[in-house]
Amino acid sequence: MKTLFIGAGSMAHALISGSLKAGVLNSEEVYVTNRCNQQRLDEVVNEFGVRQVNHDSPFDIVILAMKPKDFHEAAQSVGAYLSKNTLIISVLAGITMEHISEKLSFNGAVARAMPNTSAAMGKSATAVSFNSSLSHSQKEWTTTLFQSVGTAVEVEETQLDLITALSGSGPAYIYYVAELLKNAAVELGLEEKLAKNLVTQTIAGASAMLEKSGLEAQELRRNVTSPGGTTEAGIAELEDYEVRNAFFQCVSSAKNRSEVLGNELKKQSLKK
């Protein structure tokens, strides 16, 4: 499958790496272009043995991996890489499949995915949506692409703003919790490197339990929380400080922001 990545940032890097390792793509059929950072483009080309674009001709797959704010400018040149049979895959937050089709004057197959930065470690949680033009084989191929960097599930596009707020931004929330736990331990007297190692392994272990134990998070929490014990005392403080509500507002605010950014990008496009 002759495939073009438009954008050479961290997400393109993760997808190229994962798909080549999984055999989903062949380096001889992968091309990359980048708007202005030639050094970054050279690094990706040299690392993976893929090719820079040096021609304007259609590709089987075109993956939109630039920054969302750069989409409208890039759209002026994307048309040269499309045919009626091209599959467009977008990892651009906030930009709908309908808007992509309109901006590119394209009536074919468009998929939209929301991976997260854990794709770099092969641990992304990716949600994927498809328009009505994709064939069954195109859906399978797209799903396999994102499974090469973690897990992938199909959802309705209307859910993607919420999923952006949950799993798209989710790694940052976990890093924030890790940061706060480590800082608390250091302030209370633990050496920083030791605190970091303990927090990192604690989160990794809890993640493995969530994935492999078959138990819900609530039940796992209760299993650790003995009546009158240390965990119960800590959880009580979290409840007193309304951390439950804080996380709800966190996800809600991020979802709303995703919707706003998408609307702003669409309005900017209409003005041009």
Strand portion:
5-15%
Overall pLDDT metric? 93
Helix content: 40-55%
Tell me the CATH topology of the largest domain: Rossmann fold
Number of helical elements? 11
Low-confidence stretches: none
Gross geometry: elongated
Summarize this structure as a short list of keywords or feature phrases.
elongated; 272 residues; 8 strands; ProC C-terminal domain-like fold; alpha/beta; 13% strand; 2 domains; Rossmann fold; eight-stranded mixed β-sheet; 11 helices
What would you say about this model in short?
By secondary structure, the protein is α/β, with parallel strands linked by helices. It has 11 helices and 8 strands. Strands 3-2-1-4-5-6-7-8 form an 8-stranded mixed sheet, sandwiched between helices.
Can you walk me through this structure?
The structure is a single chain. The chain is an alpha/beta fold and 272 residues long. Helices cover 54% and strands 13% of the residues. It is built from 11 helices and 8 strands. It has an 8-stranded mixed β-sheet, with helices on both faces. Strand 1 (3-6), helix 1 and strand 2 (30-33) form a beta-alpha-beta unit. 31% of the residues are buried.
